[in-house]
């Protein structure tokens, strides 16, 4: 069964959701499951070079927005899956389009899942600008990809139209927020659900999509 993961690398709940899905798939439920990362942009109107993080927060939350501010629930749920966010380290709010292009580049090389982990860690824990080509090339290397080939891909335009097509598909599917999981092409699970909920949904989707004779 295939699980499509609609996600944005600048979404903290997507990182938490990834870790919860990892734990769920480490059980027998993971047998026969394949993963496909799909693009979604929370902030598609940002300039390609991104913007100052503080300016971005002020525009969203007002003049008193803090770089390091983090809801207690988010912090607690992140720590529960082994993530320690460092929001204060994030100086730029990147446009994530190039990161999605790199994730598409990773697909035929079977490295999407590893790359997603690196990109989340770069952005949320290390404060790296995942909109910068140099940062993305290093992320590709850390995910086991060929850095030179990744650089050539990012500096060209290959895959850009496919990312745009997939962004449009998310809208057509009615996906209005991430993370969101599409299972067996038919069953949608929105949000960073608990591992128990994920397990129940995967089991149900598999049972319906792959009925026994």
- Which structural class do you get from the secondary structure elements? alpha+beta
Work out the helicity level: 40-55%
Work out the helix count.
Answer: 9
Largest sheet: 4 strands, mixed
Lateral arrangement of strands in the main beta sheet: 2-1-5-6
The chain-level mean pLDDT equals 95
Radius of gyration from CA coordinates = 17 Å
Low-confidence parts: none
What is the string of helix and strand elements? Answer: EHEEHHEHHHHHEEH
Q: What overall geometry do the principal axes of the alpha carbons give?
A: globular
- The total count of strands amounts to 6
Distance between the termini: 17 Å
Provide an overview of this structure.
This protein has 213 residues and is an alpha+beta fold. 48% of the residues lie in helices and 11% in strands. The protein contains 9 helices and 6 strands, in the order βαββααβαααααββα. Strands 2-1-5-6 form a 4-stranded mixed beta sheet, with helices on both faces. The protein has a two-stranded antiparallel sheet with strand order 3-4. Helix 1 links the parallel strand 1 and strand 2 (34-39). It starts with a strand and ends with a helix. 35% of the residues are buried. The mean pLDDT is 95.
């Amino acid at each position: 069964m295939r699980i499509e993961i609609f996600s944005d690398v600048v979404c903290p709940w997507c990182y938490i959701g990834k870790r919860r899905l990892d734990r769920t798939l480490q059980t027998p439920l993971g047998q026969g499951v394949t993963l496909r990362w799909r693009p979604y942009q929370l902030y598609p109107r940002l300039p390609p070079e991104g913007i100052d993080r503080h300016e971005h927060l002020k525009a969203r939350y007002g003049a008193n927005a803090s770089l390091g501010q983090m809801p207690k629930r988010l912090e607690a749920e992140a720590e529960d899956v082994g993530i320690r966010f460092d929001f204060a380290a994030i100086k730029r709010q990147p446009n994530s389009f190039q990161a999605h292009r790199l994730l598409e580049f990773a697909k035929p090389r079977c490295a999407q899942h590893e790359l997603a982990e690196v990109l989340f860690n770069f952005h949320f824990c290390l404060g790296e600008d995942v909109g910068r080509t140099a940062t993305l090339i290093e992320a590709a290397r850390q995910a086991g990809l060929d850095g030179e080939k990744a650089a050539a891909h990012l500096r060209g335009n290959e895959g850009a139209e496919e990312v745009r097509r997939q962004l449009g598909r998310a809208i057509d599917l009615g996906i209005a927020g991430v993370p969101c999981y599409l299972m067996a092409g038919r069953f949608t699970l929105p949000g960073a659900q608990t591992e128990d909920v994920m397990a129940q949904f995967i089991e149900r989707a598999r049972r319906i999509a792959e009925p026994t004779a």
